[in-house]
Amino acid sequence: DTLFNLFSFVLAMDADVKKENLSSVQKLGVEMTVRYGKYLNLLKEDAENGLCFVLMNCEEFLKQQQRTVVSSLCCLQEHYAGYDWFASSIFLIMSGDRERTLTFLQQFSRLLVSAFLWLPRLHLSMHLPITTLEYGIHPVYFCSAHHVEMLLKAELPLVCSAFHMSGFTPSQICLQWITQCFWNYMDWSEICHYIAICIFLGPDYQIYMCISVFRHLQQDILKHTEA
Length: 227
Hints:
Elements: H1 24-39, H2 47-63, H3 85-93, H4 98-108, H5 114-117, H6 130-135, H7 139-155, H8 157-166, H9 170-179, H10 188-201, H11 204-216, H12 218-226
């Protein structure tokens, strides 16, 4: 179902897209993405410029839907503080085709699931109540990650207890996984399956995916807890 309004992309000119315009976090993310894409044989030599083009256009596109919030919190500044792992994932899925990537992201941004998979989508978003924005907590944390904790108590009580004793919360780990689209945690084919399942079956499958991973890791978690 369509939830968000469709905003238009005003594509930047190639001459305006320079790696120097990106933040240090974005530059590092671009290097990692391109290296990973070449390892997977998905990207060509000139992929870095294409990815920079995508990231900068995404930033301009999402600015159309942002409001100004006066706050000293780093996460509430004009630019999204982290790296856009979802847009990078789509760039790899599209084999480095920047136009196809941007077309997909524009259409995808209309769907509810975009709020959960594409975290920069709701950065300073006009679609969120101002009180929610001022706390600086992304809805994925108090929606998806919160429901993971509730399900974990029922489905995997031993894992839940292990987290409680460690001083960590499962929601912290889940937010890390979700923010990074499970990069560095799952193989590329599994990352693609995660994205596809959530798009076709709904954002609640993000929760089920996290529970499945915890179930898969249960013995290792319990072993580390004992040690």
